[in-house]
Write a structure and sequence with these properties.
This protein has a single domain (18-143), classed as Nucleoside Triphosphate Pyrophosphohydrolase (Alpha-Beta Complex). It has helices at 51-63, 130-143; strands spanning 11-20, 23-29, 38-39, 42-44, 66-67, 71-80, 90-103, 112-119. By secondary structure, the protein is an alpha+beta fold.
């Protein structure tokens, strides 16, 4: 059984919006929640691990790239409902960081099946979760890109 399913408390997830120019790096998820969907790279924070260290580790494991300075961008709650009366199936509180690509060619790793650079001005075609679209738009504003 997956210990993240039907949790007794939220899990802390760390995400990274890694930009190369106006492109943002996306991953295709290889396990639930959102199995097979495109998403932002990231994952669960380990006990004793600093949030920024988790961001860099997850990005390296899932995509093989390195980024520069990390800037706190947003905090998102990802709650997947469960069966009636059973509480949520998944509950993550996700801390999203914004960063610029520095090195490495993206390649899928860990629980990721594909990686791709996406035009951040038009990410809708990737079928992203609405909160991912929202934080990409927020990142574009923070970076000073046109709307």
């Amino acid at each position: 059984m997956n210990p993240r399913e039907h949790p007794t408390r939220p899990w802390v997830g760390i995400g990274v919006l890694a930009f190369r120019g106006e492109q943002v790096l996306l991953i295709r998820r290889g396990r639930p929640p959102r199995l097979g969907e495109w998403s932002l790279p990231g994952g669960a924070q380990r006990l004793g691990e600093r949030a920024e260290d988790c961001a860099r580790r997850e990005l390296r494991e899932e995509t093989g790239i390195e980024v520069g300075a990390l800037e706190l961008l947003a905090v998102v709650d990802a709650i997947t409902p469960g069966e009636a009366g059973a509480g949520p199936r998944f509950h993550y509180t996700i801390i999203d960081y914004l960063a610029r690509w520095e090195s490495g060619e993206p390649r899928p790793g860990g629980d990721v099946t594909e990686v791709a650079w996406c035009d951040s001005a038009d990410p809708v075609a990737w079928g992203l979760w609405p909160e991912a679209l929202r934080v990409i738009a927020l990142a574009r504003r923070r970076l000073g890109f046109p709307r």
